[in-house]
Write a structure and sequence with these properties.
The structure holds two protein chains of two kinds. Chain A is mostly helical. Helices cover 69% and strands 0% of the residues of chain A. The C terminus of chain A is likely disordered. Classes of the chains: A mainly alpha, B alpha+beta. Chain A: This is DNA-directed RNA polymerase sigma-70 factor.
């Protein structure tokens, strides 16, 4: 939330009614939002629709938007809410499912552990293993790791996005890391045994 | 145990984390930097932006319209308050409809009602009304002249033609309107700039003077006809289950159910086309027809082209304000071809029918009732 941030300037220009700033805002964030949306859905059109609606809302309510805000966080949060609503609507229409599980789940991650990036083969093996373990974590825990490590959001922001309290958010991360560590130790032993 | 107290420290409550957990955290963090993101192409990105812009401009348009609807609503309120002024086009159709509804009583003679509620009776069966001097002077039956105030806001005149009468109206722009029996026409006492609008109940033939910048609108209860300059017939009788337009020349644009929330439809028709709006099914159908069949009434005859007898008699009873009964109901569907002269006296017209069909007619003691029946003597 630094004020010299050019992204934040765009935001300020946008809420003061500058129409160029609106298209700048779209240019800056559309790709981020699309990538983010595709984490939760596989339906490209649905994600596009949600981004469309998000920008329509932004434009419509621009006079009432807060000035002091982490723009990326705000946009991600709004898009996730839109995706959640769309998801709930579509699952309400599906009668083949009886469970009331309507929460928005994050998709499995595809990591690309490049040889150039990590030269140590053993470390690479461990990372491959960890990648599998991360995908085996409960959805909510994986989502937190993603928001924290990939989107660089802080706990307050993550908690706000996921609609949980900050302590709960911390507990989730803690539990996730504990789990990963446990699995990793097991994996490491497995690796050592193999080598 | 070493602890990082850096702001970027990913670990919550670091004091509770073990070294192994911290390392797992660092590794996870590293992994997440390699996460493959789904990307959309620049084309897709631009396309989505265009959609956003389009939606916004459409919403602007809509809120603009909402503004005008609100404006029109306040205008209507003023009208209800008795001001009787009209400045806004969108609702003038409804205003004229209200004016028409006010003139409930159907007079014995053709009647012209002015904006100041003066009523003028026109004695002739075929009367004529001509507006001159931009509507300030009205010549009635080429004998008397009436003056009316045309300055200021738009006000309406109403011409009511009862069954059994006809009238030809010439408006200040030169447009001629033949009003058939049982019709009511509401029109502005003078035409303002840019728009010419009338409201019709019943049947009328229009010969509209061409004016490129001032479209002429004929409103009926469920169809609106828009023209620039052309000739056409509109039939919108209350006791018919349909509203129809027949085009003689030029082109017209029809809008059906303009006041419906959904389903307002625009259709263009070409000469020789008859467009019929079916009220029950709310559908508009067009067909190619022999135009004379529908417009010949204004020239004093009926052009018949396999017209069912029931249909013909319905027209005649409107034209002459009489009741005509068919003794044998099966005759209703018998069709006729040819032209039928509409004589001054119904009896002469009925004689014409009798001659060509072999039916005979009888006048009932009540002189406005006739019975048509099969002749017992075969010709």
């Amino acid at each position: 939330m630094t004020h010299s941030d050019p992204d934040h300037d765009t935001w300020l220009r946008f809420i003061s009614g500058d129409s160029d700033a609106f298209s700048d805002l779209y240019d800056q964030y559309a790709d981020v939002l699309y990538a983010f949306g595709m984490r939760y859905s596989t339906d490209r059109d649905l994600v596009k629709d949600c981004i469309h609606d998000l920008f329509i809302d932004l434009h419509g309510y621009r006079k009432n938007l807060a000035q002091e805000v982490n723009v990326k966080f705000y946009l991600l949060k709004s898009l996730r809410r839109k995706l959640h609503l769309a998801h709930r609507k579509s699952s309400m229409l599906r009668f083949d499912r009886w469970d009331t599980e309507d929460s928005l789940a994050i998709n499995a991650f595809t990591f690309s552990i490049e040889q150039q990036l990590i030269t140590d083969e053993k470390e690479r093996e461990i990372l491959h293993h960890l990648a599998v373990e991360i995908n085996l974590l409960p959805d909510r825990q994986r989502e937190i790791l993603y928001l924290r490590f990939h989107q660089d959001l802080d706990y307050d922001e993550i908690a706000a996005i996921m609609q949980i309290s900050v302590p709960t958010c911390r507990t989730f991360v803690y539990r996730a890391l504990k789990e990963l560590r446990g699995k990793l130790e097991f994996g490491a032993i497995f690796l050592i045994m193999c080598c | 145990m070493k602890r990082k107290s850096n702001k970027q420290e990913p670990i919550p409550e670091p004091e509770h984390l073990t070294e192994a957990e911290r390392v797992a955290g660092e590794r996870a963090k590293l992994l997440f930097t390699t996460l493959r993101n789904e990307a959309f192409s620049p084309t897709e990105k631009d396309a989505l932006w265009n959609q956003v812009e389009e939606t916004i401009s459409r919403r602007k348009q809509r809120s603009f319209n909402t503004f005008w609807i609100a404006a029109a609503a306040s205008v209507t309120l003023l009208l209800l308050a008795g001001v009787g002024y009209l400045v806004f086009y969108e609702d003038s159709a409804r205003v004229m409809q209200d004016v028409a509804a006010k003139a409930k009583e159907i007079p014995e003679e053709t009647r012209l009602i002015l904006a100041d509620e003066r009523a003028v009776s026109l004695r002739k069966d075929h009367s004529s009304v001509v507006y001159k001097d931009n509507g300030a002077l009205i010549q009635v039956d080429s004998s008397s002249t009436i003056g009316q105030q045309v300055a200021g806001d738009q006000q309406f005149n109403t011409l009511i033609v009862p069954y059994g009468k006809r009238s030809v109206l010439t408006l200040s722009d030169g447009t001629r309107i033949w009003l058939n029996s049982g019709s009511k026409l509401v029109y502005p006492s003078h035409f303002g700039k840019g728009q010419r609008e009338v409201y019709l109940e019943g049947q009328a033939y229009f010969s509209v003077t061409h004016a490129e910048n001032a479209p002429f609108y004929v409103h009926t209860k469920d169809m609106e006809v828009k023209v620039l300059g052309t000739e056409f017939d509109v039939s919108a009788y209350d006791d018919d289950p349909y509203t129809a337009t027949v085009l003689t020349k030029g082109s017209v644009e029809l809008t059906t159910q303009r006041q419906a929330l959904f389903g307002s439809k625009k259709t263009k028709i070409t000469p020789g086309t008859r467009a019929v709006f079916d009220q029950e099914r709310a559908t508009l159908q067009t067909q190619q027809v022999d135009v004379r069949e529908y417009v010949s009434w204004k020239d004093g005859y009926l052009e018949l082209n396999s017209a069912p007898l029931a249909e013909i008699l319905k027209k005649l009873s409107r034209y002459y304000r009489v009741d005509i009964e068919l003794k044998q109901p099966k005759l209703a569907g018998v069709t006729f071809r040819g032209s039928l002269e509409l004589q001054e006296d119904i009896r002469k017209t009925l004689e014409g029918i009798s001659l060509t069909t072999g039916l005979i007619y009888k006048q009932q003691p009540n002189e406005r009732r006739y019975v048509l029946e099969e002749s017992t003597i075969k010709p």
